[in-house]
Amino acid sequence: MSLALSSMRRTCTSVARSARPRVLALPHAHPSHSLLYTPAAACQTRYSSHSPMGAPPSSPRKKVTIATLRSLHKKGDPITMITAHDFPSAHVADHAGMDVVLVGDSLAMVALGMEDTSEVLVEEMLLHCRSVARATKTAFTVGDLPMGSYEISPEQALATAIRFIKDGRVQSVKLEGGKEMAPTIRKITTAGIPVLGHVGLTPQRQNALGGFRVQGKTKDGALGVLEDALAVQEAGCFAVVLEAVPAEVAELITQRLSIPTIGIGAGAGCSGQVLVQTDMAGNFPPGRFLPKFVKKYGDVWGESRRAIEAYRDEVKSRQYPAAEHTYPIPEGELAAFSKAIKEM
Ligand code: KIV
């Protein structure tokens, strides 16, 4: 905490001691802040630059549930899904009207700088799930079970899934794998936890797959992906991610399933799409490898860098902070303060 901020907090606290709580409704405050107001709380809300809460979405939508996803699928309305790994990335995804927010284990790389997803721990995933869940008011949330947390037995998987719901505060879990995961999916779903399947390219098994390879490129390969998708559907998944599968294959699989398919690198014939937020928002340095299926919709990296460089330059040249960024003091108080200093 900066010196300025900590001393500001001290000032607010001393004001609070001398005043009784009042009931207030502040127009720009989060609803949970508007009931009981002490001057200290008002100071927090007005002065803290760290508050994560913005105004609620201007046209609040209804909470997305499993039933909403079923209804979208029935109507042929594409399901929109995006990853988020922390409060801000989930907050913006929720405001932007995503149907589903996935706390993917891709956060191992994009948020924690790890080499691949095999390194991320359950505890790390849970920390990120909790921060995403706090920001996600309307989208349906999914937490990705990390490698090693569900493959040993259906019991191990159920225990991990329960932690994701109770500690991670997400509404469902995702796990990778096809036929071989059917008993595990059955175990979790019969305990009342919705499961999102993930077949085709399963990044947690990249070592066995020989890297990040497109799946289902031959008749037998495509039949294998279909069998996996049917098996996870039969076991109770509410939807299944199809990753890195030829578009035509994904479309035919989608037509054979009764649950929605969520494509990533699987073409437009799926029932919905998912992308990693940092990829689609362009939050990475120029020159980074980008998979063929990613469309870059923004330049978050470029805009952040431009802003940070402008800030750096203005601090160096003393253009920032300008007068409008400073707090006033009554002239008399300032004169008295200057005098006091001189007399010290
Ligand atoms: O970890 C992840 O982000 C994912 C999606 C991209 C499907 O599994």
UniProtKB/TrEMBL annotation:
Keywords: Pantothenate biosynthesis, Transferase
Residue ranges of coiled coil: none
BP-aspect Gene Ontology terms: pantothenate biosynthetic process
Known catalytic reactions: (6R)-5,10-methylene-5,6,7,8-tetrahydrofolate + 3-methyl-2-oxobutanoate + H2O = 2-dehydropantoate + (6S)-5,6,7,8-tetrahydrofolate
GO molecular function, one term: 3-methyl-2-oxobutanoate hydroxymethyltransferase activity
GO cellular component: mitochondrion
Pfam families in alphabetical order: Pantoate_transf (PF02548)
Major enzyme class: transferase
Functional pathway: Cofactor biosynthesis; (R)-pantothenate biosynthesis; (R)-pantoate from 3-methyl-2-oxobutanoate: step 1/2
Gene3D superfamilies noted in UniProt: Phosphoenolpyruvate-binding domains (3.20.20.60)
Entry keyword annotation includes Transferase: yes
Family label: Belongs to the PanB family.
Annotated function: Catalyzes the reversible reaction in which hydroxymethyl group from 5,10-methylenetetrahydrofolate is transferred onto alpha-ketoisovalerate to form ketopantoate.
Protein name as it appears in the record: 3-methyl-2-oxobutanoate hydroxymethyltransferase
Top-level taxonomy: Eukaryota, Fungi, Dikarya, Ascomycota, Pezizomycotina
